[in-house]
What does this fold into?
Amino acid sequence: MTSLEEKYFAELTRDRTDNANTLDKPSMQGAKDNAVEKYSDQAHFIYELLQNADDAGATHAEFILESNRLIFSHNGTRHFSISDPATEKSDAENGHLGDVNSITSIGNSTKSMSESKIGKFGVGFKAVFQYTSTPHIYDPAMCFKIERFIVPIRLTDDFPGRKPNETLFIFPFDHAERKADEAFDDISEKLRSLKYPVLFLTNLRNITYRIGNTSGCYEKEIDEELKFSSTTAELIVMKRDTSSKSEDKLWLFTRTTDNDRKYSVGFPLGSNGLPKPVKEPAFCFFPTKERTELKFIIHAPFLLTDSREGIRAGIQHNKKMVALLANLAADSILYLRDIGSKEGHRLITDDLIDIIPVDENEFSPLDDRQKLSFLPFYTQIKDRLKKKALLPSDNGYVKSEHAYWAFVPQISKLFSNEQLAMIVNDPDAKWVFKSIGRQDIMRKNKMLAEYIESLTVNCLDEDTIMFGKKSSSRAGSSTTNAITGITAEFIEHQSVTWLGKFYKWLSETNKRTEAAKKLPFFLDQKGRAVPAYIGNEPNLFLPTGNDRDYIVVKKSLLRNKDAEAFIRKIGVKAPDLKDEILNKILPRCDGKVGVDMKVYFPKLLMYYKSCPLLESGKFAVQLGKYPILNYRTENGCQSRQLTPDKIYYPTDGLKRYFMPKPETAFLDVDYYREIIPAEDAEIMLTFFKAIGVHYAPAITERVIAAHEAIKSGLPRKYPGRGEVWTENQIDGCDELLEAIVEKSDIDGSVALWEQLVALIAVRCDERKTPENIFGGSYAYFYYGQQREFYESSISKKLKGISWILDRDGDFRNAASVSINALSERYDTASEAAKKFIKYLGIADEIKEKKTDDSNLSPEQLEEINFGRKLRKAGISSDQDIAEFMRWREAKNKTKKTGRISLSSKEVLSLQTAKTVSDDSSPDNQLDQSDSDEYSRPAVNLEKVIKRAKENSEVELEQIARLEELQKVAEQSGKYTYGWFKSLLELEIMSQNESSFATKEISISFSLVEREPETERTLMLKHPSRYIPQFMEDLSDIPLELHIGKETHTVAIEVVNIHSYSLRVKLRANAGIDGIDLSKVTEARIKAKDPSFLLEKLRDGFAELAYDDKFNMQQNLCKNIEFIFGPPGTGKTTHLVQKVVVPLIAKQKPMKVLILTPTNKSADVLVNRVCEIFGTDHSYENWLIRFGSTNDENIENSIVFKEKTFDLRAMPQSVTVTTIARFPYDYFMPDGERLYLDEIKWDYIIIDEASMIPIANIVYPLYKKSPKKFIVAGDPFQIETITSVDMWKNENIYTMVKLNSFAAPNTVPHRYKVTTLKTQYRSVPEIGNVFSKLTYDGIIKHSRTSASQKKLGIEGRLNIKSLNIIKFPVSRYESIYRTKRLNGSSAYQVYSALFASEFTVFLAKLISDRNRKDRFSIGVIAPYRAQADLIDKLTSSMVIPKNVELNVGTIHSFQGDECDIIIAVFNPPPVITDSDEMFLNKRNIINVSLSRARDYLFMIMPDGRTDNISNLKVISKAETLFRSSGSFTEFGSHDVEKVMFGSENYLEENTFTTGHQSVNVYAVPEKKYEIRSEDSAVDLQVRRAAKKSSQGERIIELKILQK
It folds into this structure.
């Protein structure tokens, strides 16, 4: 040390002593602590030591950790310096501050922005004072220690054993507050886990450490160095020998700034030599704690925070460094590509997406002043990938504008790049990212899928591959080539080997298989690509050796195993007779040249004979289009053939009829008799008729132009509204009329009469009259399509021309001849003849003179006219009048009794069953004769056998298909893709077999009422059968209103099912204002088969195209959240307030889709939004109700949108619709279809999930990839109804195993489950019952007992919040006996009678005590038969106006609530302990009990009932009732005494018997008279009329099981 340095050292010691004295003051203690504890990582000073060693030019450094101290040494060439303490400020600014000055100061470092140094000893060194109080420094230039934190003290002795030119630091563990072992543990851990400590250092290459007997090291080696312009690329090996040896390789790309500072981007390599993703913070020589969200390493000389742990935000220098690094990173992808190409080992592969940023949302905005933004890395790399050939393909790399991505990897594996180029019409096209498919990526990582899509021209799925696409460009792409898809030319260019692979791929799904049949995917014998089928007819056949007239498969194709298997799978076979006809015979029958049919016609007839009935009909229709029949005219045989519709069968009548028209073509019957055996003569006649040969004059329709119609004075009501005038023309009629008139042709007149009567016989029925045949038709549009008939020209001729022959042989017109005067040669007796006579207007007799009534008074005229009406009605004698008087007297007597008779049309059908279509064709009617028990009807056994055979074939095919689907479902495993596909198909087949899904369902209603305060809403009551739930998914249903003989038809827009009523909203301008609904005797609706809903869902599932073994449970997405809302907890309110509104409040572009099970639940949710917002109508800017609504307020509001609405016009939207619409419905603005399942939704919410079939929910979960799915509902309420037992009781909750309210858990991921634990519906006494029964007793109650509605009936009936009424059940006594309708729906007469009488009794009691208040009572029964009985009974009683009564099954009550609930638990005939028994299902009982707000009655079997203990859930509920503080129990007989004054009133006043084959209903002797059998229950009720003078009224009720 020089004398000057000694002087500076002494002055520095004095200065630092003064400063130490200041720091020791209490007021300065914080400054010292702040400097020491600045680092969260207390051993961070190790990096500080390494930094300064590198600055000193060291190449090696060593740490020795002992139990009481740490020793650090390095071989740096620059040694410690000291400067004048008096000039420290300027020295620090100029970078000349001495090392001793720096290490003993606080926050005064030698670091200079002009240096590419890390910095000399700064505040970071002060971290050593957490472990030591006196660090010692031994340097070749000087030795000293530091005391009191900043005071340097010279040491006279050097450290023993220090090497020459070695700098040594000794840190004794002498801290007053930290033990030596703590210091040892901290530093030991740090030394073993240094992160890339030498990677970004300039000089230091090797670091070693010793800890006791163990040692380790960190080394850096450069294996390879390359130059890319201004970029240095180094393959660096980072060796680490700590507890175990490891070696990391990475490509490091480095550039320098204008100030020669280095910045780098590093890509660590995996064991396969490819870049691997890492999660490392940003480096500034050493790791900071700044997260970058990048998957590679970046380093730059950033300006750091004081702690050197973070990078300062908002600093221009740091922003510039990020920009430089981002550009380097983007270029590095190019360098990695080129390095890989050079070395023959590709570094850029499909794994590229694992190391680059793909989600810009992970980065903060560029203008963020709180955190440094690394967003430029995303934009720069993406820009480079779009502009350069960087996307990995099979053989090299491709630019974005020629890159295509496959929907699933199988597509890109099957189709080569060359084949892709042909398909997409782009010679430079190549597949990219072949190892991953869009479908799977979209489900797992939506942002990644969208990122890849943005880099490619298009994502190709199987539909695009097979069918092509008009334009292949995505938004932002410059390529607009149309995708041609697989064309015939493409197939013709492929090898047989590849075609075999192609066919195997096609065979993997039914969808591809079916589509391929009709596409030119097959090579014929000439090498041309042809379809296997055209329409449904075979076009391609297997070769037979005689193939001249057929298109057959190329033989080399059949030598390929996979090709042959697929060709045979799709039904390609050797040509049979039908094929010969279609491909060989009919093509020659072109009508241009005559064909010798002697060979061909027998084959046509042979095939017609052999094929099934349905097929023969289709075949006949097809033949009718070809000129295949030989014919004759009056001039003789013709050389060519005609089509059958131009030929008549030569009956004598027709030949006579067409005599005036000699060019008429008649079948050459003699020709065919020669070539067809006699035994086939009868079938040949049938064949001629079937293919269209006429057996009566042909009728053709002529359309009359508007100007001609107007000129002719034809009727016209609404000009311009789709007007069409048509008239039928009868072939030969004009010619024959003209001949009759000109030649007085008597035989011609008879022939004309005969043929016209024949026409009426063939063409007229109950719906079609002669006016339809002979008259003109005027069609126009007025609130629907309308049609009227008018007198046509042919009609005028038939009525006006004198062609009709009378008995005297004279010709007369229709007005001048009477029936009695008609010629005897005419048929006047047949029904058709009578219709013809009536049509012509021929009277019974000709009135010669009109009666002069001028001398009669009006009264006399009225009496005469009335007498004429009586005579016309058949009353023409005194005896007739007497019979009428007796009939009227009997009618009045019946009327006085008040008996109501409900026809079979007004009967409730409680269970679905198979129905047979009404087919009145002769083949289906075995015999029309009457019969009784003693004379059986004749049976045509031949027809019976024929139909049975045909039916058996169909049933066997169906059974085989059912077995096949069931096998697939079982073998695939539960929740697999194959399981879902198979069960969906089974569900469709099952529903098509049931009565409610046949081609058409018809339901009649006996009562129609207009809903109060509505214009277009009607309530249809008392249905004739069960109303299926699917009705709510249909629209545009016709409604017939019958009033006497009049029928009015209006269109229903949407329906809503409520218990046993149907709430229907009519379409606008339905025109019912003039209809008196009270006079409607019957209302009938006819709904079409809704199975298309399931079929659309099935088609959607098929498009997912997973392997059958793909487990859809284990692969569920992670972004699902559940809302678990028990009864009354305000689930809908929570959805709106806590989910929907906060999403919209973000003020970001967002599309939310809410799917509900029914239109009713969708309307409830929309109304809840409106209620919550109140007078604030801002929701109108984003809320959309789509589909059908039954709420007129919603329909008339701005939130209801039609299909033409453009959803894209709303930046924020919440669309509410039913989940059934998701697979098929769409918005259609400007003709463009925006399908619901293709729109990009940010959030999808599914409400009332327990009511939705599992397949309907799983489909959107796999089809769409929103930010989040939110599933709301309650797994412990009513489940969905399915037809197939294999997924009975399955829903989304069973799939994720969410089966506990107290401890909700889920699979395959631990989804977030929000439980709603406060119910607002029921008083606590009722709430506690269903809370403890189902929800682990943890539901809280918003209401108090004091809020209970008071009834004021304590004097008559002392009821509590919870009430049990027990009724007797007997296996023998009929009134107490439990029965089933059709072996299915259980009912018990006694409990039904009791519940009905008790309900009405209670309603009247409440009404008497509470005249001004309104109450609601709900009666719930588990079985439909029981609910029907109670509903029919209560409907016949008088209910007070201030009491609303609802009766229904448990299923119909879900979502509803009443003040009082009466739950009637009638048991089945045999009570078992099965959990599948209806009354043992917890969710069934839970819904029943949780509907009540204030009072709950449980009517249940008494303790003497056989096996009553098996009713486990009801028994538990009874226990909960009893444990409450507000409970009472009655016996039903005790309640009878209160109601009627007699304990056994119902039994004594009920008569029961079986239902006889013939029932004559007289006045019942008992109050209730019941007749029952397995399929029907008849119940007559005798009630006292309101006025005693009217006696009693009889009410007949009928419950029928179809």
Remarks:
- The mean pLDDT is 84.
- The first strand starts at residue 60 and ends at 65.
- Residues 130 and 151 are 16 Å apart (CA to CA).
- The chain has 49 helices and 62 strands.
